[in-house]
Design brief:
Layout lengths: L5 E6 L15 E2 L2 E2 H10 L4 E7 L3 H6 L6 E4 L6 H5 L4 H9 L6 E5 L8 H16 L8 E9 L2 E2 L5 E3 L4 E13 H6 L9 E5 L11 H12 L5 H4 L2
Parallel strand pairs: 1-4, 1-6, 4-5, 7-11
Antiparallel strand pairs: 2-3, 6-10, 7-10, 8-9
């Protein structure tokens, strides 16, 4: 790995939209979801600092004495913005004004089954293809979900019949730098990003009551999913 440190960014509003406003504070694996996700970041040695954007007094009080974590209230999104997922790059721009450094990892904090290995894989990819001068050919790295589907228009006529792979930005992880963010018009997904596919289970987002209940069931029955979690 190159000799640099990443700053992790995440946003955890007290009220997260209309449909499941308390999602960050629901318990899974014996911890509030926000705590579970921050623990994942603290376990990554390449991450030197964690910046949390939140209006939650509980989160601020919990992490007040942590030397690695800084809690700020840099951007408060409206509920409409949260539901329509319009806030991500706006939050990023606000957080970059509250921190120094050049290299950043932004985490979507509602994916409880994101693996430690996946975080390290995306960081290693960023280091190899963005930072390292010998392999530099991209300006950022981000996770994607792969869909293999036939597509129809509103008249049910085929748009594509050959089941092409379509890649969807899943919002789990972005690794980028300050220069690339500015050059791309204040967007984390740069002008030439490296897409990193992740396992389907990692895309399970706690964005509804139903998904939360599914996640709790999976977590409590991990032994039933040896291919995903091991034995």
């Amino acid at each position: 790995m190159s000799n640099y440190s990443l700053t992790a960014l995440l946003s955890i509003p007290q009220d997260a939209g209309y449909f499941f406003p308390n999602r960050h504070f629901e318990y899974i694996s014996g911890k509030p979801l926000y705590n579970l996700m921050i623990d994942k970041l603290e376990a990554i040695p390449q991450i030197g600092k964690i910046i949390i954007n939140t209006d939650s007094k509980g989160i601020r009080n919990y992490y007040d004495r942590s030397g690695k974590i800084k809690v700020v209230n840099a951007y408060q999104a409206s509920l409409d913005e949260i539901e329509l997922e319009l806030t991500s790059d706006k939050v990023t721009a606000a957080l970059l004004d509250h921190t120094e450094g050049d290299h950043f990892l932004q985490l979507g904090p509602i994916f409880p089954f994101l693996k430690h290995q996946t975080i390290e894989y995306v960081i290693e990819t960023y280091d190899k293809y963005v930072v390292n001068p010998e392999g530099r050919s991209y300006d950022s790295a981000f996770t994607i979900r792969t869909l293999n589907r036939r597509y129809y228009d509103s008249d049910t006529d085929f748009i594509r019949e050959d089941r092409p792979n379509t890649f969807v930005e899943d919002g789990i992880l972005h690794v980028f730098n300050r220069t690339g963010f500015r050059s791309a018009g204040k967007r984390k997904v740069g002008q030439k990003p490296f897409p990193c596919g992740v396992d389907e289970i990692e895309n399970l987002a706690i964005d509804s009551e139903e998904n939360y209940r599914i996640a709790v069931f999976i977590d409590e029955n991990r032994y039933r999913f040896p291919r995903v979690f091991g034995r």
